[in-house]
Amino acid sequence: MKKTLSIIALSIIGFGLVSCKKEENKTSQEEGLLEVDSSQYKTDSTGVETASVPQSNQPLTTVALSESNFDFGNIKKGDKVEHVYEITNTGDNPLVISEVKPGCGCTAPDFTKEPILPGKKGKVTLHFDSSSFDGNVQKYADVFANVEKSPIKLTFTANIQP
Q1: Which stretches does DSSP call E strand in the chain?
Q2: CB 72 within 8 A of CB 157
Q3: Contacts of residue 94, Cβ cutoff 8 Å, sequence gap at least 6
Q4: Phi and psi (nearest 5°) for 19?
Q5: By CB neighbour count within 10 A (0-12 exposed, 13-18 middle, 19+ buried), where does 94 fall?
Q6: Are 142 and 115 spatial neighbours (Cβ–Cβ below 8 Å)?
Q7: Contact call for residues 123 and 71 (beta carbons, < 8 A)
Q8: Residues 137, 128: Cα–Cα separation, whole Å
Q9: pLDDT digits over 18-62, tens only?
Protein backbone atom coordinates (compact mmCIF):
# COMPACT_ATOMS: atom_id res chain seq x y z
CA MET A 1 0.00 0.00 0.00
CA LYS A 2 2.86 2.39 0.89
CA LYS A 3 4.53 1.65 -2.48
CA THR A 4 1.34 2.45 -4.39
CA LEU A 5 0.87 5.78 -2.58
CA SER A 6 4.54 6.68 -3.11
CA ILE A 7 4.29 5.94 -6.84
CA ILE A 8 1.09 8.02 -7.14
CA ALA A 9 2.66 10.91 -5.22
CA LEU A 10 5.81 10.83 -7.36
CA SER A 11 3.71 10.69 -10.53
CA ILE A 12 1.72 13.76 -9.46
CA ILE A 13 4.86 15.69 -8.50
CA GLY A 14 6.59 14.68 -11.73
CA PHE A 15 3.54 15.72 -13.77
CA GLY A 16 3.51 19.05 -11.96
CA LEU A 17 7.16 19.66 -12.79
CA VAL A 18 6.63 18.82 -16.45
CA SER A 19 3.60 21.09 -16.66
CA CYS A 20 5.57 23.94 -15.02
CA LYS A 21 8.29 23.63 -17.63
CA LYS A 22 5.70 23.79 -20.41
CA GLU A 23 4.25 26.95 -18.88
CA GLU A 24 7.68 28.58 -18.76
CA ASN A 25 8.21 28.03 -22.49
CA LYS A 26 4.98 29.78 -23.52
CA THR A 27 5.28 33.31 -24.83
CA SER A 28 2.93 36.06 -23.71
CA GLN A 29 1.25 36.01 -27.12
CA GLU A 30 0.55 32.26 -26.84
CA GLU A 31 -0.99 32.81 -23.40
CA GLY A 32 -3.12 35.68 -24.68
CA LEU A 33 -1.49 38.19 -22.33
CA LEU A 34 -0.89 41.81 -23.16
CA GLU A 35 2.51 43.25 -22.54
CA VAL A 36 2.20 46.33 -20.34
CA ASP A 37 4.53 49.28 -20.11
CA SER A 38 5.37 49.36 -16.39
CA SER A 39 5.93 53.13 -16.52
CA GLN A 40 2.12 53.47 -16.45
CA TYR A 41 2.09 52.21 -12.86
CA LYS A 42 3.14 53.86 -9.64
CA THR A 43 3.51 52.49 -6.12
CA ASP A 44 1.39 54.12 -3.43
CA SER A 45 2.39 54.67 0.20
CA THR A 46 1.28 51.13 1.14
CA GLY A 47 3.47 49.53 -1.54
CA VAL A 48 0.56 48.64 -3.82
CA GLU A 49 0.95 49.28 -7.55
CA THR A 50 -1.83 51.34 -9.12
CA ALA A 51 -2.41 52.50 -12.66
CA SER A 52 -1.58 56.13 -13.18
CA VAL A 53 -3.19 58.37 -15.73
CA PRO A 54 -0.75 60.04 -18.09
CA GLN A 55 0.01 63.58 -17.00
CA SER A 56 -1.14 66.47 -19.16
CA ASN A 57 1.47 68.40 -21.13
CA GLN A 58 -0.51 71.59 -20.45
CA PRO A 59 0.93 74.20 -18.05
CA LEU A 60 -0.62 73.92 -14.58
CA THR A 61 -3.43 76.14 -13.37
CA THR A 62 -5.67 76.35 -10.29
CA VAL A 63 -9.39 75.77 -9.85
CA ALA A 64 -12.27 76.44 -7.48
CA LEU A 65 -15.30 74.17 -7.22
CA SER A 66 -18.81 75.34 -6.40
CA GLU A 67 -18.96 72.09 -4.37
CA SER A 68 -17.19 68.75 -4.36
CA ASN A 69 -19.98 66.75 -2.69
CA PHE A 70 -23.73 66.67 -3.42
CA ASP A 71 -26.58 64.92 -1.61
CA PHE A 72 -29.52 63.81 -3.78
CA GLY A 73 -31.46 62.99 -0.60
CA ASN A 74 -34.21 60.37 -0.94
CA ILE A 75 -34.77 59.03 -4.45
CA LYS A 76 -36.83 56.11 -5.71
CA LYS A 77 -35.09 52.93 -6.86
CA GLY A 78 -34.73 53.10 -10.64
CA ASP A 79 -34.59 56.91 -10.78
CA LYS A 80 -31.95 58.39 -13.04
CA VAL A 81 -30.65 61.63 -11.57
CA GLU A 82 -27.86 64.04 -12.42
CA HIS A 83 -25.96 66.86 -10.81
CA VAL A 84 -23.81 69.60 -12.36
CA TYR A 85 -20.59 70.56 -10.56
CA GLU A 86 -19.31 73.99 -11.58
CA ILE A 87 -15.55 74.40 -11.91
CA THR A 88 -13.89 77.82 -12.17
CA ASN A 89 -10.39 78.37 -13.56
CA THR A 90 -8.74 80.60 -10.95
CA GLY A 91 -5.25 80.33 -12.46
CA ASP A 92 -3.35 82.06 -15.26
CA ASN A 93 -3.36 79.22 -17.81
CA PRO A 94 -6.26 77.54 -19.64
CA LEU A 95 -7.81 74.65 -17.70
CA VAL A 96 -7.99 71.41 -19.69
CA ILE A 97 -10.09 68.54 -18.34
CA SER A 98 -8.60 65.48 -20.00
CA GLU A 99 -10.83 62.78 -18.49
CA VAL A 100 -13.53 62.11 -15.89
CA LYS A 101 -13.47 58.54 -14.50
CA PRO A 102 -16.48 57.44 -12.44
CA GLY A 103 -15.98 54.89 -9.67
CA CYS A 104 -18.51 52.47 -11.16
CA GLY A 105 -20.69 51.83 -14.20
CA CYS A 106 -23.79 53.29 -12.53
CA THR A 107 -22.34 56.80 -12.99
CA ALA A 108 -21.79 58.44 -16.37
CA PRO A 109 -19.90 61.73 -16.78
CA ASP A 110 -20.21 64.69 -19.13
CA PHE A 111 -17.75 67.57 -18.95
CA THR A 112 -16.54 70.70 -20.70
CA LYS A 113 -14.22 69.45 -23.43
CA GLU A 114 -12.75 72.74 -24.67
CA PRO A 115 -10.10 74.60 -22.64
CA ILE A 116 -11.58 76.78 -19.89
CA LEU A 117 -9.91 80.19 -19.98
CA PRO A 118 -8.69 81.93 -16.79
CA GLY A 119 -11.64 83.39 -14.87
CA LYS A 120 -14.19 81.31 -16.83
CA LYS A 121 -16.36 78.41 -15.71
CA GLY A 122 -16.79 74.86 -16.95
CA LYS A 123 -19.02 71.99 -15.90
CA VAL A 124 -18.77 68.36 -14.88
CA THR A 125 -22.12 66.56 -14.86
CA LEU A 126 -22.51 63.18 -13.17
CA HIS A 127 -25.51 61.04 -14.22
CA PHE A 128 -26.49 58.32 -11.72
CA ASP A 129 -28.72 55.28 -12.35
CA SER A 130 -30.11 54.00 -9.04
CA SER A 131 -31.62 50.78 -10.48
CA SER A 132 -29.11 48.43 -8.83
CA PHE A 133 -29.04 49.96 -5.35
CA ASP A 134 -30.98 50.08 -2.08
CA GLY A 135 -30.47 52.32 0.93
CA ASN A 136 -27.63 54.79 1.38
CA VAL A 137 -24.99 54.98 -1.35
CA GLN A 138 -21.93 57.13 -1.86
CA LYS A 139 -20.35 57.36 -5.32
CA TYR A 140 -17.49 59.34 -6.83
CA ALA A 141 -15.76 60.37 -10.03
CA ASP A 142 -12.15 61.48 -10.53
CA VAL A 143 -11.56 64.57 -12.69
CA PHE A 144 -8.17 64.60 -14.40
CA ALA A 145 -6.98 68.07 -15.40
CA ASN A 146 -3.85 70.20 -15.59
CA VAL A 147 -3.88 71.08 -11.88
CA GLU A 148 -1.26 70.23 -9.26
CA LYS A 149 -3.45 67.90 -7.18
CA SER A 150 -5.04 65.83 -9.93
CA PRO A 151 -7.36 63.99 -9.87
CA ILE A 152 -10.05 66.12 -8.28
CA LYS A 153 -12.55 63.85 -6.52
CA LEU A 154 -16.26 64.66 -6.89
CA THR A 155 -18.67 62.71 -4.69
CA PHE A 156 -22.40 62.34 -4.22
CA THR A 157 -24.71 60.51 -1.88
CA ALA A 158 -28.29 59.29 -2.15
CA ASN A 159 -30.76 57.34 -0.06
CA ILE A 160 -32.52 54.93 -2.42
CA GLN A 161 -36.07 54.05 -1.44
CA PRO A 162 -37.92 50.95 -2.74
Answers
A1: 41-43, 49-51, 63-65, 69-76, 80-89, 97-102, 107-111, 121-129, 135-145, 152-161
A2: yes
A3: 58, 61, 115, 116, 117, 118
A4: -70, -30
A5: middle
A6: no
A7: no
A8: 11
A9: 333 333 333 333 333 333 333 333 444 444 444 444 455 778 999
DSSP 8-state code for residue 135: E
Residues 6+ apart with CB under 8 A from 52: 40, 41, 42
At residue 79, does pLDDT exceed 90?
yes
**What letter would DSSP give residue 102?**
E
CA dihedral 75→77→80→84, nearest 10 degrees, is 30
Residues 83 and 125 sit within 8 Å (Cβ to Cβ): yes
Residues 87, 124 contacting (CB under 8 angstroms): yes
Rg (CA), the chain: 25
Residues β-bridged to residue 124: 85, 111
**C-alpha closest to that of 53 among 143, 156, 139:** 143
Rounded to 10 degrees, what is the CA torsion of 109, 112, 115, 118?
Answer: -110
Tell me the sheet residues that pair with 70: 156
